[in-house]
Hints:
Blueprint: H1 12-46, H2 58-75
Amino acid sequence: MTTHMPSIKAPRHHRADRRRDRLEYRALVAVSFLPCLVVATLGRLGESAPHRPAGETIFAEALSSARAAAGYALIA
Length: 76
């Protein structure tokens, strides 16, 4: 007697859901990037002793913040 093992490959509707989820995440990152860029820029202008890692650009800091914000938005 043999048992049927489910396919490892996800059905098409699951792949479409994942694709839509990725697009939503990227849209959230894109929307939150500009405010994060403004805050990172203002933070760099206002601080006398920077606490950022050496070599991190304003854009990298803003992108990191935008990705974190998008992750929290998806939890809610």
